[in-house]
Amino acid sequence: MRSLQLCLAVLAGFATTPSFAQVGGSVETVARNATNLEPAFAGQTRAPELRAGVAFRSDVVVQGLDKPWGMAFLPDGRLLVTERTTIRIVSPDGTMSGPTQGVPRVDQGDQGGILDVVLDPDFASNNLIYFTFSEPGEPPATSTAVARARLIEPAGGPMLEDLTVLFSQSPKMDSRQHYGGRLLFDREGFLFVTTGERFVPVGRPQAQDLDSLLGKVVRIHPDGTVPADNPFVGQPGAAPAIWSYGHRNVQGAAIHPVTGRLWTIEHGPRGGDELNLMERGADYGWPTISYGIEYTGAPIGGSISQHEGMVQPRYYWDPVIAPSGMTFYDSDVIPAWRNSLFIAALRGRHLARLTMEGDRVAGEERLLIEGNPRLRDVQVGPDGALWVLTDGTDASLIKLTPTP
User: Fold this and answer.
1) For residue 3, what pLDDT band results from cuts at 50, 70 and 90?
2) Whole-model pTM?
3) What is the rounded CA–CA span in Å between residue 12 and residue 106?
4) Among the listed residues 70, 31, 281, 271, the one whose alpha carbon sits nearest the alpha carbon of residue 182
5) What residue numbers bound the domain in which 359 lies?
């Protein structure tokens, strides 16, 4: 594996207990876009820079991936890595399988393709995997969909069998953007699916419409059926799969290793990327409230960031970092990182580490910031290393390990 010199300034040494050093003001020094919008509470944005004092090395495990999006660790330590039109199996030493056969047809334009992938909680006995993809409909309409299939590995290479589409977002839209697409099982075995509002004028207001699956976080059983205790089950005119609504484009989700609660992260427009603590049946406000502005520079709606009955983000960025995958560090291999939240930034081209104190962001640190490409996903491996996917048509899988 080739070592990359990607860190700009990590502190020397490897802490055996968490010890953070505040090195000044906010890590963000660029002027805000939404200058008329103030945070709802102290620390909601531009937290102080807190460094964890961890020195690490970054090594390229695989290079040449075609628009990878998500990854999941198999019980034997290998990884499933999604690409634009397929899924590959990657060994820790960099050995990579050929394309997995049996994947469904996807609309691969723009942000489309095969997106996230997760294992069934009982994968060891049933070999089932779940993945999101951009599902083509009547051209040019597409939507986010979730498929389940059994992963097998015959001599000719990996294959999917017994594939079933469990969830298909409706309505389909003439758009190839804002698919959302993150998948996650909680501790009770429910499957959460994140979606986007598809980045078209007709789709935007549907993020707050309960009869639409655009701009929602969805909660289903592993077989695709709707849990009876979902918040809108039985409510006339509401889609029963909805768990929360008022989202723009949720591309990150993670379960806190201590509390077990679900956190998500979503893209804002110009400003207003949000980190949210998820609440059952809650409205997260898009597009009524936002901490950003339109790409044209115009205000969004009534140019408000707070509204009664709509949940505030626990943290936001302005200007945006374009957050995608996220994970809580839950290993003892690097104690100084334990319970930190790591976020892969696309536009920011860095790995953000947030120091959490309860439900509050106490500090921010930016890693991998020298000459780095866009980052798409981040996961904690069974070895305690951080595994990072870069973005694009010649992308890499990178492994971060501490240096003694």
Assistant:
1) very low
2) 0.94
3) 46
4) 70
5) 1-65+247-404
